[in-house]
Amino acid sequence: MTNLLSPDGTTLDASLQPLVSVLTDAPNPYPVLAWLRRSPAARLLGQLVSTPDELNHAALDALPQGHATTYVRNLLTSAGLLPPRDEHLTLLINWMTRTLAKLPAHQGTLIHPFAEWHIVRDARRRSAHGRYTYTAHKGDCGNIRAAIDFLTWLDTQQTPSRTSRRKTWTSGQSPGPPCGPAPSPSSAGLVPATSPGPA
Would the N or C end of the chain have less CB density within 10 A of its end CB? Predict the structure, then answer.
């Protein structure tokens, strides 16, 4: 455990002791040992804890988002090293930020207020009541994407009448691409302290 969680393999930062407790409290140590040796999540965890002062949600958000990242986040949250947060809401906000940053300026000027003050504000309200699901996140991303696709389509049209263009667009528009990968099943709750899985 010390080899994984300390930069020099000998000295363990005191702030990481809760994480050690989560990993060593399993009744059967063999699955934990196998996880430590072979799991991509274990390797990612070893990289992150080399600088405990920089261990936060933002550092994890900057990484490619996959099962290993999700598992490590849940593990650190269950150990109390990261504060809990609504991951579905965060998925929406992070996707919106990345997507809007790629838009042409004239589209961003229109989409940003719609996304921030209509979509995200409503998502925050639902999250505060514990009712913001992954399905809701997908729907909200889809609504933002539909607005972007509509503006992009308008940019390609030469017809003077905006009303006729809207009718033409809505009559044949198909859904846009999905807004992001699904989180692992453990993302909705804390990682059990007794059995790190093969993430």
Answer: N
The helix (H) or strand (E) run that includes residue 41 is: helix 40-48
- Which pTM was predicted? 0.63
Q: How far is CA 21 from the centre of its chain?
A: 26
Element containing residue 34 per DSSP (H, E): helix 29-38
Neighbours of 74 (CB within 10 A): 24
Burial class (CB in 10 A: 0-12, 13-18, 19+), 137: buried
- One-letter amino acid at 83 equals P
pLDDT digits (tens, 9 = 90+) for 20-64: 888 777 777 778 788 878 888 888 888 887 777 778 898 888 888
Q: Return the structure tokens found at 194.
A: 């007794």
* Nearest-5° Cα angle at 199, 138 to 26: 120
Helices assigned H by DSSP within 129-178 = 134-155, 162-172
